[in-house]
Amino acid sequence: MNNDIERVLYSREDIHQVAQKLGKQLTTDYAGKNPLIICVLKGAILFTTDVMREMDIYADIDFINLSSYGNETISSGQVQLTKDLDADVTGRDVLVIEDIIDTGRTLKFLIDLLKGRDVNSVKVCTLLDKPAGRLVDIKADYIGFEVPNEFVVGYGLDYAERYRNLPYVGILKPEIYQH
């Protein structure tokens, strides 16, 4: 797997430091609120658990799975809800944790869905923000790193379900995904 990576953008230690920083900030911002943390599957699972371990507050967790990529490197533009939440979000302070915000379509779909379910508040924490890929006007409230407009994998992010288990975030060599 490592041979498929053009270069490492963020090491395990870089990610750990960001998770600590964000966890401390979220502890302050959500003090006394018992937020519902929504992990966007599958990519955000590693980041979600690392950030949650750094939060010193009561918090619940639930999972949602949305897809717009399939096995491609660019979004299809169509967002599909493939696994809905189990929890009732009505009146809750919700924190969505994402792996990456690229076009913004998936996140906009999710925020609209949550607002339609009468949440008290919704904020977004993302490991990676790729503003150069943005097609809709949406921003995260908490950002780990800003990434260039390259195809990144590792630490939960995948290409065709591969590379999620890399302990770092790296740029995938174009010859791997160009057909």
TrEMBL record:
<comment type="pathway">
    <text>Purine metabolism; IMP biosynthesis via salvage pathway; IMP from hypoxanthine: step 1/1.</text>
</comment>
<keyword id="KW-0963">Cytoplasm</keyword>
<keyword id="KW-0328">Glycosyltransferase</keyword>
<dbReference type="InterPro" id="IPR029057">
    <property type="entry name" value="PRTase-like"/>
</dbReference>
<keyword id="KW-0460">Magnesium</keyword>
<dbReference type="Pfam" id="PF00156">
    <property type="entry name" value="Pribosyltran"/>
</dbReference>
<dbReference type="InterPro" id="IPR005904">
    <property type="entry name" value="Hxn_phspho_trans"/>
</dbReference>
<dbReference type="InterPro" id="IPR050408">
    <property type="entry name" value="HGPRT"/>
</dbReference>
<keyword id="KW-0547">Nucleotide-binding</keyword>
<protein>
    <recommendedName>
        <fullName>Hypoxanthine phosphoribosyltransferase</fullName>
        <ecNumber>2.4.2.8</ecNumber>
    </recommendedName>
</protein>
<keyword id="KW-0660">Purine salvage</keyword>
<feature type="domain" description="Phosphoribosyltransferase">
    <location>
        <begin position="14"/>
        <end position="159"/>
    </location>
</feature>
<comment type="function">
    <text>Purine salvage pathway enzyme that catalyzes the transfer of the ribosyl-5-phosphate group from 5-phospho-alpha-D-ribose 1-diphosphate (PRPP) to the N9 position of the 6-oxopurines hypoxanthine and guanine to form the corresponding ribonucleotides IMP (inosine 5'-monophosphate) and GMP (guanosine 5'-monophosphate), with the release of PPi.</text>
</comment>
<comment type="similarity">
    <text>Belongs to the purine/pyrimidine phosphoribosyltransferase family.</text>
</comment>
<keyword id="KW-0808">Transferase</keyword>
<keyword id="KW-0479">Metal-binding</keyword>
<comment type="pathway">
    <text>Purine metabolism; GMP biosynthesis via salvage pathway; GMP from guanine: step 1/1.</text>
</comment>
<dbReference type="GO" id="GO:0016757">
    <property type="term" value="F:glycosyltransferase activity"/>
</dbReference>
<dbReference type="InterPro" id="IPR000836">
    <property type="entry name" value="PRTase_dom"/>
</dbReference>
